[in-house]
Known about the structure:
Number of strands: 5
Strand content: 5-15%
Shape: globular
Order of helices and strands: HHEHEHHEHEEH
Number of helices: 7
CATH class: Alpha Beta
Amino acid sequence: MSDRLRVRNFIERTLESFARLGELEEIIAEAGGVMRRSIEGGGKIMFCGNGGSAADSQHMAAELMGRYLIERNPMPAIALTTDTSALTAIGNDYGYDKVFSRQVRAHGRPGDVLVGITTSGNSENVIQAARQAREQGVFVIAMTGEGGGRLAAEADMLIAVPSGHTPIIQQMHITVGHMLCDLVESG
Length: 187
């Protein structure tokens, strides 16, 4: 297959998946409302994920703490992926599967929101963070690929984007993340 054909195939697959993203309009709007109400009520938004999903966590937290599109006060948002001392200490002392749940246990309060991001829906550390969050009265929004994986059963709300192809899932996750930031900010 030529390079040009590979590019065309990738674009076509991406467009097909993004065309189906409209199927999630209602759940994305609801998730944005949950996040906005949390912040309005004095809560915070926590994000977690691994690899590209960690980068998405940091990106979305930064959009809320800084600004997405409009000038406004900063909003309380934390990417649980950024404190290397906590990540390495927890990973070393308790295991990598606990790196997010221990932080949720420390920071999470009723009325807060945890956004767990995993393309497969099967990242054990994100699943454990969701369990811990729900135990503490923290609302859990899961962002996954098709099907939702095991995280679907641990979440209060599931945004399962319509693809099983990791790069396309990641592209859709950042798009959904931007939609959520817009909904929170414009509220």
